[in-house]
Amino acid sequence: MKTQPALVRPAPAQPVAPSTTGDGGPRQRGRRVPRLLAVPLALALAGCAAEAGPTQDTAPSAPVSSTPGSGASQDGAAGPGAGTSAASSGGVAPGPAAPQPVETPAGLEADHLVESTFLLASGERSGKDLDAERAAAAVVAAEPGPREWEDAVMAQVQGDLSGPMVDLLGAGEGVAAPEVGELDLPPLHVAVVLDASGSMRESAGGGRTRMEAARQALDGFAAGLPRDATLSVRTYGQGGDASRSGRADSCRSTQRVAEGRARQLDLAGELARVEPTGWTPLARGLEAAGKDLPTAGRSVVYVVTDGLETCGGDPVAAATELSRGPGGPDVHVIGFGLAEGDWQLLEDVAEAGRGEYTSVGTGDELANLLADQRELLEELRWEAGADAAAGVEGQVETLTAGARELATDLRREVDAQEERALAVVDALAAESATDAELLDGLRNDLAQRHDRMRHAVEDAERQAVNRAEVDGIIERRAGRDAAREERDAASEELER
């Protein structure tokens, strides 16, 4: 017979596991290539130069080709990597050859991708009101070589991403060590969902039916719970009868038969009025149990059943829904006199409810199991009190929310930067600044660059969330250890 006395076994939350795409690579995005009006580049820039007059952008003219890779040298021969000069670009000075790196905080750990795409100074034209034609002219005036166009474009449009990325790389830290002090223990509620189908009339040994044995075991269980603990008992399947004609009434039946301070309840008397008669609507009993739980404090649910669902319900789904959310109760299942072949189905219910399944064969085994739970429930409450005193859960939630907000903002900036870069490429194409094949390759390189940047943001976000979760587990354990020490000290004081 499988017996597991320690049903209540709180498990620490696990760090968030990294998520990837199906092939394990970075998420691919559809490229947004904004099309600008094909304003003649030479006319637009000439107009800007005429209106502004001589400026620091003006540079001596030189007879060079406007096609990258075919510029003329001083002796008139074609030279590699030459492009349009400032004068032939309407007086726009050459832009930087590439974005410049920025100083970062000492000890910052960043990989090459982050350093080469985020930790860079803002470009000359990185604002929202981008003059794509003028930026394109500056790119051409820089005379980039065939493999230097991407850097030249980014030197114009690079966004202010270094600060936000540094913030994200350091996010998720700061879960404080708990100070337990005087604990304000949260209220404890125990909800029992009891099978009242016809099979509970069968013998549990010792001259008692299963219902009589359950009634006595639960009465002793309630009497040993903490003084301020509350208890509710709900039965299911007590309506109708076990016949086909009585099935509908039985499958609809569930009733809360007791509720209040656990030590003040007369469970033996309340349950003596319950007559097991019908079918087994286990799922319905679980669904209705949610109405018995208080909105504050810590709750635990125990299901005591001698059979499987016979009314067509889905107890696994019901247990999942009942335990949903961080404050949801654990749902433990006790099989009473079940054949071993039926255990798996009830184990699935317990697993769905984040609880454990245990099988007992006699009324005495049931009473012993429930008696063991009393101490474990008190331990659970002290741990919950330590968590509340330390504020660990709130700290973890705040830090993870902050990391996700940083990542969302950074993704938005990466998207805007990509739009600016592709707008400059469109302006280059509108004036045939270089050959179409090179521009197509440039568009592809810029799209891939920004996809890699978005993937880097996702990695940094996952790492920040993991830092907060792992630190939360460590500090939560520290708080619980301190709570146990305080509880032991209080117990020794009472004994003296």
From TrEMBL:
Residue stretches of biased makeup (Polar residues): 55-73
Domain of life, per lineage: Bacteria
InterPro entries: VWF_A, vWFA_dom_sf
Biased composition (Low complexity): 83-95
Span of domain VWFA: 189-380
Spans traversing the lipid bilayer: none
Region entry Disordered, spans: 1-34, 50-104, 235-256, 475-496
Coiled-coil annotated residue ranges, if any: none
One Pfam family from the record: VWA_2
Ranges annotated as biased composition (Basic and acidic residues): 475-490
Name the record gives this protein: von Willebrand factor type A domain-containing protein
Organism listed in the record: Kytococcus aerolatus
